[in-house]
Fold this sequence. Notes:
With about 350 residues, the protein is mainly alpha-helical. It has a single domain (about 5-345), classed as Orthogonal Bundle (Farnesyl Diphosphate Synthase). It is built from 17 helices and four strands. It has a two-stranded antiparallel sheet. A two-stranded antiparallel ribbon has the order 3-4. A hairpin with a 2-residue loop joins strand 1 (about 5) and strand 2. The longest helix is centred in the middle third of the chain and has 28 residues, at about 215-240. About 45% of the residues are buried. Mean pLDDT is about 90; it is low at about 1-25.
Amino acid sequence: MVAPLYKKGRALGLVIPFDEKTSESGLENLVALVASDMNRVNQTILSRTGSDVAMIPEVANHLISSGGKRLRPMLTLAGAGLCGYKGEGHIRLAAAVEFMHTATLLHDDVVDQSDMRRGKLAARMLWGNEASVLVGDFLLGQAFRMMVEVGSLACLDVLSVAATVIAEGEVMQLSAAKDTETTEDAYLAVIRAKTAELFAAAAEVGPTVANRPKAEIEACRAYGMNLGVAFQLVDDALDYGGQSAKLGKNVGDDFREGKITLPVVLSFRRGSESERAFWKRVLEQGEIAEGDLETALATMKKHRALEDTVERARHYGAMARDALGLFPDSPWKRALLDTVDFCIARAH
């Protein structure tokens, strides 16, 4: 069952019930295991945002200090821990992964013309689009400097390929923007490139720096890729079925920005001729009137678009769990399995 979220007597969103454990408990084990290393990663992040150009640390720290969970760098640390890595390179690699992520967020907000990010004004709203793009470029440059310092060509290859694929995903999304004819397969291709690729690379680079066998590296990559797809699909559902305080943005932002996400794809494919005309009007033509968000929510509820989006996320979560099957039981493995639960249970 999907219950409406009300504000001043109007249904604004749909709260999706989940069976998994709460999102707060889902990351506890991972956070505890990486706590010491994450302190070092955070110190590295702070030191590498320094610049004589005052605006660079101002813009970078605005986003970096805004409360993100640092999930991607934690995956790098966990991948190294899972594979018994004893060196120091994972610290710089984890910081590089976080810089790559932050750079993509700065660039995304410009492309999407987003006003909010993690519950605060987006950097572009405070410093402008130009500064956001250029500071993102600075962070990418610092990320690659740290990769080089680690001295592993294999790790550099993993993360440089990821940077390329992420950029391709951004362009793919731009090409498909406002296209209601987008298929589910086409949409999944976008999120694999745009979102899941960095999860995959973050998880892959840990066993890579540890010089583990190919099977272990590929298993960690598969874990990260499937986790990333599940994470994004839940985000898609949350934009229509979440709560603003937990989203860090307003419910329905994807709708207002004309984004084609999986709930829209499913609703459009399953809809009547008049319902498809509605989606074309609000998303392709950008003609959004009072009450259209509520109509969108009602249409999604009618066609089970949110529930089925979450069900697909659970499917990818199951594949992420299966990918770790070749590793023996350990606190690291259990923490990574719990992380899947966290990603799927974030609606609580």
